């Protein structure tokens, strides 16, 4: 956004003052419990503490609380280690990788969510999509693994805490409930945790510690310890922390340290989160608390605790940096001051701090024992908005000083920082609107960097509609029957033929659809400016004819499709209409509904399968003339409707047929060129074909699960090519499923 | 060489959020509670600026959490959690306004400022501006609330509303111009 003028500042100030009239307070646990009860998950992944919240009666809580109070009053030890489960899993040794056959088509971007240095000085980086990179600082070489190499490289979501360094070399991959030690060739250990894993660390003695997944309300949860053969846990309940665990560390004496984070009350203005915090250390029988009375920096939300080789413990928080020498604390008065810091010691004894500031720029500082020297964007480090993920990891090694960022691994060369890996520029970041031509060819739009990405025969290239704006945004893609590619964006509408882009209209368009007869339809806008138009060739030029305004209370146009008979279908956030070449009238009004233009008048359909239409979207049309829509009542304005499941419906030109979506359905559905319907499922029950999750296919009669989705990250189905190849995507990657003809 | 940035205000998402989102997607109620605790205030404030009614704003925020629980799995980038949540709350507020309009419930209410010692002319200007703002349609109020109270930029708003960033900027400019004109003419 450009800098505000005086009037805009006045508007902003007035609205912020207006917002200040409310002083919201919330019982967060109660809200969470209510929505979880209203909408139970098919498979609750919560750990022990979560089960306590959800299922234990209030009486039991009171009894538990009374027991704890009695124990404290009696002077008993605050917390004792107890077994979480009697199960002892013998770690696997040398488990070879098992390729999945899934190809990750997107190249390494350097958009790392986490970068660490192992005990051998090897750097490991992980992209949010799961790709793991091993970078050898000694020679600058790198190797990468993806989910195609083994399902263990998949991640359930884009968590930033999913690798941690192994002191004996290698890296731990942290899954939802599994820790895998990868040495660059095999998984040397595979350890299952009894509950969800939050933050994990490897202790100096090689044992593993982790917060339980639901640890994060400090009055709940636990710290788990894997001693090499079994898990035990240390309850955090009695700390009554009423805060979140922001950091976990274990010192050389085997004592766990916890850094706490709590929102400052009253809440600061939006966009300015400020966190308070403190540190707790467990000495084997009791907890010791260190807070702002010990060092000012300990009063901020704590996100990093590190013990350096000299034994000093450093704490980085929202309030700065503090050092504990074993007996007393001291604030480190240096050139940082943000909570995204990491601290590490170089072989020469210098202390390196990496951090990022409110502008998302990376900063690095070196302390030689007397003074600090700092580096920023002008010294070659990534600047604001240059990182896919805002992280900063100080990584001094015997082969040089590195910093891990969301824009790659940087090395200090003299007084300048240079990107050491990836060597080339980041090629792609966030691909949307995937259009599959074949197994070996894709088109997609990049919402981060603009322009269009083209994948062909294993190579990605970029194209732009307008050579004068090479990073111009593209909102939507469509393919015409003659094979030409059409694109719509803020700079207009264009088609590509014989490798050249030709702009046919300069008006902004956010959606585009091309019919079998080559008719081109575009739509865009918001509120009164919403429009739908048809583009037709007229001699050597193209003419745009507006055919419709959007319904007054359904302002955002969400989808366009042309069916096999040339009829245009459109959907808004709260309604759908079918335009058959005539004037586009008003339909639906303020009530969500489904309408189709049948001759000169609209036929409004308010029900599908006997229940009211809520939030509806046109998914696509089949070659045989069917139109598929998805109705999602979970966002209905009627609370009673929200409990109904998402459903798909098919219009065959005469009747609507409602189709129940498969077990575990999670996201958008895709209509394949052969007319089959595809949906991404999250947890597929054994009764529905087995496998953990993955793509589901509807052939007109039943849903089947053609692929084993075990270990896959959560994905969204992106496209199905005419040759049947299935493509899926996460926020950063595109996946191609094995060439396999789905079973009949 | 330069110093590091000031810690005063960090708009970036806290590192724990990604983990909390992952856990909440997996059905972890307590992790979801963390998110509620962190963002509920933002949701209510934005909804309040859209609706002008405290109870309605609270209802909108509660409804937004219900949607968030069900839809969190579709959030690909935890960095976008807050924009997504506030937009859901704004949308819920807008829907509730419509629902109440159908039942003939009162329009948005503007309270006089609590600071009687403030500059009277400034107070009057602010009330005039709020008066003009309240005459906007709910979706337009929603857009302004997302921008100036939610702190979303045009790219974030565009992604959430299905508009281009330039389209968002254009629409905001026109809304500001409309407010400016109403104040000038009013």
Describe the overall structure.
The complex is a heterodimer of chains A (744) and B (186). In chain A, 7% of the residues lie in helices and 41% in strands. Chain A is mostly beta strands. In chain A, strands 1-14-13-12-11 form a 5-stranded antiparallel β-sheet, with no helix packed on it. Chain A is globular, with a radius of gyration of 28 Å. The two termini of chain A are 52 Å apart. With 186 residues, chain B is mainly α. Chain B is 69% helix and 0% strand. Chain B has helices spanning 15-25, 29-51, 54-71, 81-102, 120-134, 138-148, 154-161, 165-185. Chains A and B meet through helix 1, helix 2, helix 3, strand 15 and strand 27 of A and helix 1, helix 2, helix 3, helix 4 and helix 5 of B.
The dominant shape of chain B is: elongated
How many β-strand runs of chain B?
A: 0
Cα end-to-end separation of chain A: 52 Å
Largest sheet of chain A: 5 strands, antiparallel
SSE run of chain B: HHHHHHHH
Mean pLDDT score of chain B, rounded? Answer: 75
Portion of residues in helices of chain A? Answer: under 10%
Low-confidence stretches of chain A: 42-90, 157-161, 214-219, 581-593, 598-602
* Biggest beta-sheet profile of chain B: none
What overall form of chain A do the CA principal axes indicate? globular
Individual helix count of chain A = 4
Distance between the termini of chain B: 53 Å
* Fraction of residues in helix of chain B: 55-70%
Mean pLDDT value of chain A: 77
> What structural class should be given to the helix and strand makeup of chain B?
mainly alpha
Q: Which runs of chain B of at least 5 residues are low in confidence (pLDDT < 50)?
A: 1-12, 101-109
Biggest interface goes to: A-B, 129 and 103 residues
Radius of gyration of CA atoms of chain A, rounded to a whole number: 28 Å
- What is the oligomer described by this structure? heterodimer
Number of strands of chain A: 61
Q: Number of helical segments of chain B? A: 8
